[in-house]
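pinging the channel bc i need a second pair of eyes. not urgent but kinda urgent?? the chain im working w is below, pasted from the shared doc
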Amino acid sequence: MLNPYIEVGHLCDLITNKEVKLGEVAEFFNRRIEKLNPKLAAYMTATPENAMADAARLEKASAPEIAKMPLYGIPYSLKDLTWTKDFKTTMGSKNYEHFQPRASAEIAIRMRNASGILLGKTATPEFGMRPTTEGGLCPPTRNPWNLEHTAGGSSGGAACAVASGLGPLAEGSDGGGSIRIPSSCCGTVGLKPSRGRVSWSPVVGEAQAGFATSGPIARSVRDIAMLLDVLAGAVVGDPYCAPVPSEPFAASLGKRPKKLRLGAILESAVDKVDPDVTAATEFALKAFQEMGHVVEPVKLDPAASLIGVAGLIITAGISSVPVKNEELMDPVVRGLSEQGKNVKAADYINAVAQMHNISREIIQALAPYDALITPTLTRPAVRLGTLPSSTNEALQEFFQWCLFTFPFNATGQPAFSLPNGLSKAGLPIGLQIVGR
């Protein structure tokens, strides 16, 4: 019997040593999805027949072919914002319930070419515009730790699937925290890569003035590195291109870091931080110090500096999505879209310029540090149906919850959310590590 929470490296060993067949792997996760997904709503579209077909196709590969397949036989999921030519991509919207893209996203092609087994498309709020996965076409995605609470968003289905053993690897996207928020809520590892690390081809050149990117969600940093090696790489003509690393990301895991100078931000003027979250973060900082690293508080409030321009850019971006029937939209998302329609072109251009200028100042202030440590969220997973408290307060309340995440979409820096213990109520708490 397979362990649903198996680490990818161990699963690779079982497959390589022929202790388990690919068809057995696909069938195991298909059955688990069939059993648990009705309760959790992690998947919007499960693809069991495709998973079995992938397994059957890959079983015929020769040893030399397998050696070139980094995800050989490993199950994975794609977020339902990611275009797939062979399967509908609803984007969590009733207006796109039957949308069949004319092409697959570059990252979807790369994951298939890496010879993984596609289990399905995971749930998202409409157009990925909520930090909780609810309110649109997809049923509310529930937190595996407490079904009355959200799994986070907008990659809530992806993080829920990984946390509940409905697949070991998931692709998500992050336009303000949408990989890190659900990872914090569900106790998984999530990475928002550097801007330009992962291509949006051929769907768009950039998303929300460079705010958004795609990235991996998994159960360990090692698994994240494996998936990032598959996803990473620009396409010729991309507007952003991160420097090519000197070695695969997975290879860097074998190197122990030197003594690091770490900055720490634990509070913001935008909102208060839950005491459980603060205590967990302080405990982690002590652990870093015990490992020999230097931890210094940083007098910086990125959220307060960026909240105005971020709101303008994000709402303008959502208003640009073509919608035939606005009455079918999630009222919260419709309200954000209406805000964006009121943004003038000149104001948008000025906001993008301000975002880059403020981001430059933030990065310069953080330049002396090897990494920055913050909580991922101001508080653990909220109850479903409670965020926002009203449509009019949606944007402000969203930013208050994810005030530590969205600034680094603006700066383009890479940022991890790592599991960092549990709250007194038994809900996961996340720790964010922001890189250079």
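so The two ends are 42 Å apart (CA to CA). and The first helix runs from residue 8 to 16. — does that match what u expected or am i reading it wrong
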